[in-house]
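Chapter review: from sequence to fold.
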Amino acid sequence: MTSFSSTPVKAVLGPTNTGKTHLAVERLTAHASGMIGFPLRLLAREVYDRVVAIKGAAEVALVTGEERIMPPGARYLLGTMEALPVDRDVAFVGIDEVQLGADPERGHVFTDRLLRARGREETMILGSATTRGLVRSLVPEAEIVTRPRFSTLSYAGPSKLSRLPKRSAIVAFSAEEVYAIAEMLRRFSGGAAVVMGALSPKTRNAQVAMFEAGEVDYLVATDAIGMGLNLDVQHVAFASLQKFDGRRLRRLTISEMAQIAGRAGRHQQDGSFGTVGLPQGGFTPEEILAIEGHHFPPLASLFWRNPTPRYDTLDVLLADLAQPPGQPTLRPAPEAVDIAVLKHLAGDMEVRMRGNEPEAVARLWDVCGLPDFEQLGAEHHSRTVLRLWHWRTSGDGMIDPDWFAKRLARLDDTDGDIDQLASRIAAVRTLCFIAQRGDWIAGGAGWTERTQDLESRLSDALHAALAQRFVDRRLALLIRDAGQRHASLPVAVAVDGTVAVDGEPIGTLKGFSFKVDARARASDHRLLLAAAEKHLRSELARRAATLAAGEDNALSLVSEAGTAPRLAWHGHVVAT
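The token string follows.
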């Protein structure tokens, strides 16, 4: 983006829950045009919906790798940092979570936007106070404003999973751990919502909606919730303080701990954080003190990579991408997937033969930008990239629509378990990314609709699968119901005797005898009997009055050989 050195740049730095994003949206909508870059597709979508509510859908665009909503006259753009069009001339630019410039995989993108993205009238940099020194050094013209947290964040100590307070988020760092915790919460409390970065916005929103509506009292998530997603969480419990960062298993930094713990509490509501299920090795006293007081060691440097490499030859491109930064507070970015794929393909005979053709080299680097959504690794992912490059550098330069259609059809299956559905969604995200590129595949609009429709249907199936596996609505309902003395949940007794509380069957009532639902787990029987006793009192009283009045001629004697006569009412024995 063109640099406007005379226009004001403001850096708004501070911990979570300081209203930074809210302020950026206010400033964005106060200008005639603008855009904000976010670290997550989920967050970009959330803020897009907020700006649409203010300005109307025709005025607002959403641009992420997999999703592009671009009305012809859109003046406001929300997107992921990678998708932010740096050459777009707008009045306002917002750069969110700038401390992610220290992230080994994506940091160079955030650093580039910090250095180059400027609004014509105003630029706002948002992030952690740990970047204060770096912002002062790299953007000396910036006015730095520090905002205090709206609410208090305090350490609540370790806890057992079965004793966690309601409205808690439990944070783990692998899908396996998330699933295991959600499974246990299903048995303890009736269920939990699940939020992971790999979920589509639709699945994530459906899961969060269950939590926000009180259908479940717990939310199990990866550290994706640390990136500003707005959740009504009162307590954050860490199931682990270690994560695999793509290279090694390491302990979280204090800043990472604080970013996640800071999701607890909202606006003026205080929050707490702690651990759950951890043996020895929880938070140290120094970490607790730092998180509660929002005092973190400053970042010493950010990652940088040449954002404007030349395409004269393949060797020139590789050399430019390896160029070291020119400032002491910047350091070379580690090898990301796109460069790993480029280096792998540099050994291909045809790629080498065409390494002196600038257009072929430019298109090679362009297709290397296809994200590895499926986490296949550089070698496997490079096969798809090479195939795309062949099409992009031959014939009409467009991807074969038959290949695309077959791949789409192969993924069009909403049956399967959670892992199968999640894997299909990841593969569809690759097709969504390709479909967004009108210069890659002809008839982009049609493909976009088809890929997004499939992602939407797979998302619905995944949400249903997550809810089926991790939510026992009946158990959750009865646990909440048991804690309310004067609850007035609707009770219905069907013609066949099935008793349902708020639509959930709990058993059958034959005459005056209640039997627990035969499909219920043995551990749930006590709850179901208590619910029947609580909710069937008026129905049993009504039946007793009807029987005593004897007005329905429903009484009869039933006798069998060798047994005493029994009194039946409507065919159900009530006395002997």
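Two observations follow directly from the output. The mean pLDDT is 89. The first strand starts at residue 9 and ends at 13.
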